[in-house]
Please model this.
Amino acid sequence: MSVMENLSDHTLQINAWIGLCQLDRTFPDTLRNLGYTVDIIDPSFVHEGDSVNPDLILTSRAYNHSIVIDCKSYFIKKEQNEKYESIHHSPEVLLTRGIVSAADASEDFNAEFAYSSFEDLAENPHLPENDFAVVQYDEDANQYISRTLEDYEFNLSDLQDEFPIFTDTRRLPTDYFPFDVGTGDDDYRQFTISILQSTVHVALEQDTFNADDLLEDAHPLWVDLDTNLKNELRAHTETIIMEYQRQGLDGHIEKVQAGSKDEWKVVSKSLQALQRKVDGFVDDVQEKLEQTSLDDFD
Model:
């Protein structure tokens, strides 16, 4: 199974957006050329009494402009449009609440929202009746084409002028955001594989480690993740390690208490057994990951 087959369309979209902000010889750096960087991934906050949770925010210091992105399948909910529209007309809340950090608060700041999808959203009954952008990733025989739908374009003209974006490859990047949780079995599986691999990496380099050590090794953009997402990933990582021990791998690592955080200690350097058990372990742990909640992590 290839890495792309292990990831949901939702996670692939996040990778594609991040990839456009990177210097990558295999993928266009269109948004990077406009100064866009990853500001925050999976921010969660309350605005005017509503919980708002887009997938990521990209910010260009050169334009003092942010793109707030929600990666969709086919469905757009009317209430989502209303939540985003209230912020769309008062983007300064992203600065005053500390959600956006890469912009300059001393100058005029602007932000706009964008939906993206691999599906054709043109006939969606809940396309926003406002000036949001809608970006569609189309795949042809040789590449992906990122295009904005007619009448749903970016307000920032220099940004809109870059669309459509041609990837010149049918392979989307997958290393920037290697896993998510809660968006499907494919992501749970990839997350489990990544944590297994990082356990071997980290345990061979240091005698004790905690969930953050594993996540920092497994996720290259760990520092850019929202606090709530970090807590969720910590909880799932705890679940995986406990399953290690339940399945008889306590001969390799054991749990130790170190201050307020649980840590594990390497008791055997013969960790190849972990790697050999990956496939069977991944299948067994799926249901337990889906049942893990934030209450499992203190």
